[in-house]
Amino acid sequence: MADLFQRSIEIILQNQSASGAYLASPNFATYRYCWFRDGAFIAYAMDRVGEHASAARFHSWAAAIVNARADIVRRVVAKADRGEPLHAADILHTRYSLDGTEAAEADWPNFQLDGFGTWLWALGEHWRLSGAHLPDTWLRAAKLVADYLTALWPRPCYDCWEEFPDRIHTYTLAAIYGGLQAHALMEGAEHRATLAEISRFLHTQSVVDGHYVKFVGSREVDASLVGLAIPYKVVEPYDPLMRATVAQLEARLRRGGGLHRYAADTYYGGGEWVLLTAWLGWYYTHVGEREKAGATLRWVEAQADAQGQLPEQVSTHLLAPDRHAEWEARWGPVANPLLWSHAMYLILYRALERIDQG
Questions:
Q1: Fold entry, domain 4-356
Q2: Does the model's pTM come out above 0.90?
């Protein structure tokens, strides 16, 4: 499409509710909710393109959700301090209806910590990029989330793909690290000890054969590992471990032009994810690999349909082609548009602009 940049902004704004929540996907029933994870990246993309009011509306929505559940946070922090097990009523949900109520499915994999770390990171970026004063209600919510993450970070939980609840995930810890680091800058909060513990844990438990792995105890890689460097800055983009990790992603998870999630992925047959390909390109811009970054941008643009919509994933190169039909029968065609895909495209586009403008 000729102007996918403007079309992406339009699609995101069209699918932001009056409450401030972003629909993950308007045409995919299972995704007609707002996730903290998706929403935080979308808000950051809006800040990158100058739509600060849109980002602010999302952050206001997110802060209201957290503040309304302050008692839950205080209870879970106290239970964690006592070493007690957690129950479903003790956790913050990961996705919400547009009005801020919890989604109806009681059995949804809600114990996910990465989205809250990502929200803190995105809130810090909104503060930095917009120059706006953050309302006290937002800062109160940020403090609650920081307490929640500080108490729970060592515990297994679902990963960013809402799988493997019995594992400690490298990406999740990176998102928590990035969030707590942002909170420390926003509020002058003291997270030094927790940040050091997370960093030490990652470097001792999440490295195998000279690269980072999907979760503790695994030998596999996951495309989300790009997040360790960009944007969460647990390690620098040029760090040898990070470079080796990206090399593994390129070798194991990039069979066509796009990037797969992980080698054993069977969701919709394990296609190439648009947002992950853009994310890899975002990393390339930070290590000066302009040609590689440009190639990822062109691949992403080629996945847009005639209406300028970017899907969640494409089925050109499937890892598990025999599993595609079962997901279509269960939930329908792949989500399209996916707002997170459009957000990551905008982020990559802006990152390449910065390189080209010197």
A1: Glycosyltransferase (1.50.10)
A2: yes
